Amino acid sequence: MLHSGKTVFVPEGTYRINVDIGIELKSDVDVIMSPNAVLKAIGSENNHSRVFELYLADNVTITGGQIIGERYPHKGTGGEWGMGIQIYDCENVTISDVTISNCWGDGIYIGAEDEDVKGAGCDKITIDGCYLYNNRRNNLSIVCGRDVTVKHCTFENANGTAPGYGIDIEPNYPDVNPSQRILIYDSVFSENEGGSMGIITYSDDITIADCIMDGKFINYAGTNVKISNTCINGQMYARYGVDIDDKSVINEGTLKEDVLV
């Protein structure tokens, strides 16, 4: 556990992490990792695990370094909840320039301890310049979050168990705590098994700008979804309710690109 009001520097090296416990961060902590610092998860038999755990923690930053999950040394066969960074009920959190791969579940999960309680969840979360790849479920899950900004990121090759999205926006209790005010820009999506992005349950006010999505885009339940200056190389499901500007291109695999105005 890292207590409040600390700046922690992690130097170059490989550090093995017991993900059954994880590294728990409290409020007002800045973690700065060397680009050559690697936090490598020890294989677990539990369904739930994490490298970093943030719970009721405000004003936290994690910068630099690599997180390698326990997808391959995992000792069990069930579950899908082994996270690289698990963020519950936090405010003002920034994750920047971190590479996260090979997690049993998601690279980053934004949610709540009690998602069915009104007002639960995270506020003002920023994911900046991160590279998330080869995570088993989703590279990033936004389950219970408001005012979430994702920028300058790459989401690649989520695969292994459904849904397999680069970004999955899927509140578990959308009538109580929909995810709202989500901005995703200047990011690249490629080879994610289920698709580049899925908005699966009710969420509102989602803006996607200046992105390249190599893979389908799904909007089943999002409202006020806006796409601008973005190229989607794949099928787009449920276009209804999505505002697409005339600089965006949807290429659904036909011989001619489908330019939507």
Q: What does this entry show, briefly?
A:
This protein has 261 residues and is an all-beta fold.
Strand order of the largest sheet: 2-5-8-11-14-17-20-23-26-29-30
Instruction: Tell the overall outline.
Output: globular
Tally of alpha and pi helices: 0
SSE string, helices as H and strands as E = EEEEEEEEEEEEEEEEEEEEEEEEEEEEEE
Helix content: under 10%
Tally of DSSP β-strands:
30
Instruction: State the distance separating the first and last CA atoms.
Output: 52 Å
Uncertain ranges: 255-261
In percent, how much strand structure appears in the residues?
Answer: over 45%
For the largest beta-sheet, the strand count, sense and barrel status come to: 11 strands, mixed
User: How many whole angstroms does the radius of gyration measure?
Assistant: 18 Å
Task: Average the pLDDT over all residues and give the rounded result.
Answer: 94
Q: Indicate the structural class.
A: mainly beta
